[in-house]
Write a structure and sequence with these properties.
heterodimer, A: 83 residues, mainly alpha, 3 helices, 71% helix, B: 133 residues, 6 helices
Chain lengths: 83, 133
Amino acid sequence: MSIIAAFVMATFTTPENISVNPKSMLWLLPLVAAISIVYKTTKLPKIRFVHFVKESVVLFGSIVIFMAITALVLCAFAWLVTE
Amino acid sequence: MAPRSKEGHIMFLIIVGLMGWFVPGAGHLAINEKKHAIIIFVTIALTFATGLYIGSIGVINPVGAKPWYVAQLMNSPAVAAIGQITRTGDYPVYGRPNEIGQIYTSITGLLNLLCIVNAVYWAHLRRTGASGE
């Protein structure tokens, strides 16, 4: 097995080191991007680059903003309960 | 091209669905939607690979995380092959990498299920003549 193949195999057989901190929440962004792209692909019958990108970005923004609002509401609720 | 019989049409829908399951995007390729097929394949393959990169192949766990495994299986039958490798428990993964890896790989599985249903639906609409737009 070549060194490159061994390196590639190793990256998929050992987990990354991700600590539990607020920064780790940023891992949701690539996933939201993937969801937006695939969802818009299934919804648009004809794909034109500019229109497709615009629709995907709008959906991406909507999801992120909605999640941020939900997080703020939950934070406020937790603060009210614990104070 | 001569119209298919009802049985032939059902068989075609099944083939479209199976193609979409075996290779993400292949269902759309079968109905001549090349752009859709390429976008779906690249997005799902990259996101799935990201999930495996973060959590290792240990996130595919048919023994300890069955509900996640069912969703992961929607990506491709190849996931079952990975599941056979990890079944022995030689690739343990815990904590945040496990969570993120499982979420990534399971969500891509569900996205692929959405694409399979979409490809079958469009294949059906084309026979009935409805535009579906």
